[in-house]
Amino acid sequence: MPHSDPTADAFMRRILANPPDPVPRLVFADWLEESGASPNLAWARYIRLADELAAAPADDPRRPKMTQDLERVGSLVRARLTFRAEMFVAYPEAMLQLMPPRSMRVKVESVLVPRSLLDLVPHSLALYRNVLPLALVGRALVVALSEMNTQEATQMLTLVLNRDIVPFCAPERTIRSAVERNYGALEFDDFPPLTFESPARAAYPLALAPSPADPIDAAAPGVRFLNLLITEAINTGAEAVDLEPSADFVRVWFNRRGERTEHDPVHSRWLIPICTRIRVVAGLPLRAEEVSQVGVMPFTHRGLRYDLPVRLTSTPDGPFVRITITPAPENPPVALSQAA
């Protein structure tokens, strides 16, 4: 079915006028089926299967088979259409019922993404992988990706974000512009406060500066990121965290059972605040004279004190950092009131 078909265009305008209404889609499916062309038959079947799957209860035993059939039929659809990204932000479920994601491209030039969605993908990751979140459907995150790296980026995002990823292609330059426009001043200012413990074993919330001698504000984004990273490492059973600097980004690696998994990277400007924070908490000299610094960084998580060995090794792009995650302690730390 050529995209310039005036009847098809009329159907599409009616569908997009109210995407949640299934009737125009199903009428369109009837018209596709009447054409008799194999790709159109596949598209018609896709629309009907998607409608059935959307209406099926979450515990319907047919859902796995319906999902497999939908993917199989979707691979046979030959049509390619471009839509404004605003349609996916406003009506993600309905757009996914219209045609398979691989058949759709998105125009992101003017889209404004809600803050709740931007929070799901760190700004540094959005820039590094050229990805813009558009919608959340259950556990699946709908994103715009450059057509140059869709498969690789989808696999990495699935691993890093622990979500199913539904990718739609867009030109790389338009995604980068949309990322910069949408994230803007948000940048790295949204990490939640966690609990850190000073070398003197005095636990305090991150919202408060630990001491006048600490040159890094405890509420600074880099500090909050470090604490969030350690907390995630503990919660996911990582044995060590590596921060590997480069000219523009700091690559983050989690080590689990002998396997090294890449986490979302951070901008290189975070490296100095992160390393300074580690040195302060571990009691290391702020000005490193040695090629390698070794210490222990106390950390409190869920009422338990962890003594985390840290090593900072000089490289041309800045310190390479390894934080070893020690096993959970058997006893919680002594409260300040009791210690007194």
TrEMBL record:
Domain of life: Bacteria
UniProt xrefs under InterPro entries: CHP02996_rpt-companion-dom, P-loop_NTPase, T2SS_E_N_sf, T2SS_GspE_N
Residue intervals of the Type II secretion system protein GspE N-terminal domain: 106-185
Matching Pfam families: MshEN
Name of this protein: General secretion pathway protein E
